[in-house]
């Protein structure tokens, strides 16, 4: 039986397990990436594991999230990451070099390799044919130490792209259509593998826009083949030697098959407040726009920026619109500056931001109250922009630029002929913002400023797990709800005790105080609890507050893994109606917890207040059971070393 691309890479990297969907496997990791908001924790954890030098083929530490440096905190983190990277064998991408996924694609990604990143949009690397997976910082720390990465063997969904996009339709519209069809839960437990004749018409950056937003499908990752188009991209990056061909076997088997006819796609938008709330621009109508933001790891490539510049050229941004543009990397910004496109953007009235995540992570450019903000980004959860009442629409760069000119949501087909942008034969290559690690790490001193605080480590599981239901939340709670990530809090990513004061406060302001007053307890969640980013702070902050278990209707994959890594029990209701039977402050008890966790695959939770009990599933592999018993991955790794 033939193999698809995902299976081929997994087979080449398999360490343990059977390649049958649903069973636990572990794979060898070739490359890792971190960004600064998760990176400080990943390197603190790497240091705690106690290995003198990273064992991966290449590891890169990017600074792209917290680049404002409004106080000493960001700069402390940057200094810590730079020195720890230098010591332990990690390449360091300085602030200003660009957004991790964009730069990784340009300068480091290699088809056929595995990439583990402490950022949920790591699957962007699938655009170049990598098996690129987002994970928590601790998983990345273990991978840097040479340990395998454990995951559930995914099912593989083939998305066959037929035909060719019409002019003014974009790669963004393809992934929005996939989101419309499959929903934000549609990729859970799956790799989305793109195939069909339509893929040949898509450049590597366009493919990367699509794999990037596979994270919004909840997918383990997304991947394109490595073909002639990939070779051209790598050649233009001066990295032809990194190319290998990677195609599915002609008789490859897939678990699911979705067909999308590119010729039928129109410009679209994901409407507030979910990336799968997708509608055609022509059907939404001309709503007034206050802000347009172009950039992020989804849509900040050279090709995206050149299209935007061509649309803006010789025109003026509407009076009611603030247009901000963040080119994705130093390479992109340099090329725009050299060929005059940057001048066209500035002349039209655009505000040019640093090559960094910026407004995507709420670092500046919060829209005004009740604003409509069009963004080329990948997430539009409520409040992520920094303004709770803002309505964020996710659109292509073409829709964004056209709307910035008219001041209303605009179908770019109204502008006449679409600009034709050619892929450059050669990109401008200048890696002088990348610092190579020291050849001998033992001479390097790691600098720890006052913002670098110890992180919480759990205790081994006790005989009894008991506590109150400290909060009860509904469906689709995101990691932004659990651990808000705004400009005020981002500088404290290496200071978990401080961050914990804000845990789940978008749902309930009193939660942190209540959790502390009760010495910890349980969180009760709905479906898809913990969707969104990979941030393990969404597990570390509850751990800091003494949370022992989360009982939900279902979990998002990375968040569940992060809970297990922290030694917090992730339980799902065997019978979902039991969710309704729990009220806040109910006293819950799991007796004989060690035995129950070891043996049953489920635990009996007693509700002492209601004098009732219910069964909660624990979908844990044998290894995860050991991790829970040890009190998390760090304790487990130390024991197994
Ligand atoms: Fe940065 Fe936003 Fe991507 S925070 S890594 S640009 S999702």
Gist of the model:
Its cofactor is [4Fe-4S] cluster. The protein has 22 helices and 27 strands.
The assigned CATH architecture of the largest domain is 2-Layer Sandwich
Structural class: alpha/beta
Oligomeric state of this protein: single chain
Associated small molecules: FE3-S4 cluster
CATH topology of the largest domain: Aconitase, domain 3
Task: Tell me the helix content.
Answer: 25-40%
Query: How many domains make up the coordinates?
Result: 3
Helical region count?
Answer: 22
What key phrases describe this protein's structure?
alpha/beta, homoaconitate hydratase activity, 641 residues, metal ion binding, binds FE3-S4 cluster, iron-sulfur, Aconitase, domain 4, Aconitase, domain 3, six-stranded mixed β-sheet, Acnase/IPM_dHydase_lsu_aba_1/3, seven-stranded mixed barrel, single chain
Walkthrough of the structure:
The chain has 641 residues and is of the alpha/beta class. It folds into three domains: 5-264, Aconitase, domain 3 (2-Layer Sandwich), CATH 3.30.499.10; 268-415, 2-Layer Sandwich (Aconitase, domain 3), CATH 3.30.499.10; 465-640, Aconitase, domain 4 (Alpha-Beta Barrel). The chain is built from 22 helices and 27 strands. The strands form six sheets. It has a seven-stranded mixed beta barrel, surrounded by four helices. It has a six-stranded mixed sheet with strand order 7-6-3-4-5-20, with helices on both faces. Helix 2 (36-49) packs across helix 5 (137-144) and helix 10 (302-312) crosses helix 12. The chain is globular, with a radius of gyration of 24 Å. The model has no long low-confidence stretch (mean pLDDT 96). The protein binds FE3-S4 cluster (F3S).
